[in-house]
Fold:
Amino acid sequence: VGKATAARTLDAGHALGLVAGRLACAEAVRLAREHGVGVVSVRNSNHFGAAAVYTLEMARQGAIGLALTNSDALVAPFGGVRPLFGTNPISFAAPGEGDEGVCADFATSQVSYSRVKHYRSQGLPLEPGWAVTGMGEDGEISALKPLGGHKGQGLAMMVEILCPLLAGMPFDHELSHLYGEPYDQPRQVAHLFLAFDPGAFLDAAAFRASVSRLMRLVREQPPAVPGEGVRVPGDPEEECAARRRVEGIPLTADELAAFRRIEEETGQVEKP
Amino acid sequence: VGKATAARTLDAGHALGLVAGRLACAEAVRLAREHGVGVVSVRNSNHFGAAAVYTLEMARQGAIGLALTNSDALVAPFGGVRPLFGTNPISFAAPGEGDEGVCADFATSQVSYSRVKHYRSQGLPLEPGWAVTGMGEDGEISALKPLGGHKGQGLAMMVEILCPLLAGMPFDHELSHLYGEPYDQPRQVAHLFLAFDPGAFLDAAAFRASVSRLMRLVREQPPAVPGEGVRVPGDPEEECAARRRVEGIPLTADELAAFRRIEEETGQVEKP
Structure:
């Protein structure tokens, strides 16, 4: 332990996951520049927000980036009924020409827990691949199902092995829930950041040009539903961000009331 | 190019993918032992068989292994109708205690092309997430659909970026088909092998014990269907191999006839 040159472990000391994540992701890029590939395992951390934050940053630095994290158990194994795995997201990003790039970020469950809860609250039927529901009349949700069945279970286990097992942290189902007691105990979440330097394999500019060519090719594909274009991972988020820069961020009445309350309580007001 | 210490490119010179794959996978493990992580990109290769061959070998050597390869286009992007991506499989393996370990190996399409063809030949209906079918009366299969929708497209693009784009090879849709003319042209398939040395992050024996603990935990999960156990990726293949070691390998009449024909033509007979 400690002799490796392209692999590091960072002990976050129970810091905010966002702080630990930014540090670890910068270190992974630094290692990749020196060794062609760099990996940083993070222990004793917390929820790090959206995984794409880190892979987009790695891509901005010219690296191909992967960011993985475990989380508390919500997903049953394939053919199981009880939550055993976190939604254990995977984000991948690669730089294209200029500012553009591909960025995928997805949970290894078929759908998110918030989607299932939203459908339930609206009385809409759940699709069979989404969740395990209880036997009772209320059919409460017991667990989410893994992405595409056994394949998603494989991805969830890959993330669990590369994050908490490689960092010597508790298993997904041993983590306390993000929104639940005890709030005064360390959660011991684990992450993994992996960066590749394209320039270690081929001419970096040629690589970036090929990523942009792939992006154009995807967007030019004929769609199944006329008018609904085929998109590159990251496109929907880019479109949403561009729209909100012009129109602002829509808030529900509840959210607006919460902001008003914070404003009153703290006296902090910032207006554009 | 060339200065990186933990990343290499191997030009397979149009050799059999199985030969190139074995060499590259051994080199990835060697790099991981020295640097904590090792990556080998392979260019100018051919079909390398099952990706699990390489990750199982990496796990046998005590490493966590990932093996990716691109292939000729069969899979449409999410919302598209034409094949653009190969089935671009991902295999992941990690060593447990003794001989045991986890090994997942799956295409980034929802199901395999052979499954779709088999269902079609039996007149069985395809599930909606499996394939794009043509508009004609025969409803011929235009393309496979990606695993779980847009998430599978993200995985397919990740494999395309990490394999042919990082190796400077043609895109998936530019590859000639595996079973189709021209057979006298190089196919220029690309692979990526990634190995992690658990001992660079924590005590290797403790890591392997935790993988075995995770495997036991998964197998002990209550099943949704009584009698149908929950399994670890690799368990179905292990069970099948154990059964066939005792009972032999079942052959269809066509397969048996083909073997008889080869026997007659070559005079080569090997009996147990």
Observations:
- The first strand of chain B starts at residue 7 and ends at 11.
- DSSP finds seven helices and eight strands in chain B.
- The longest helix of chain B spans residues 17-35.
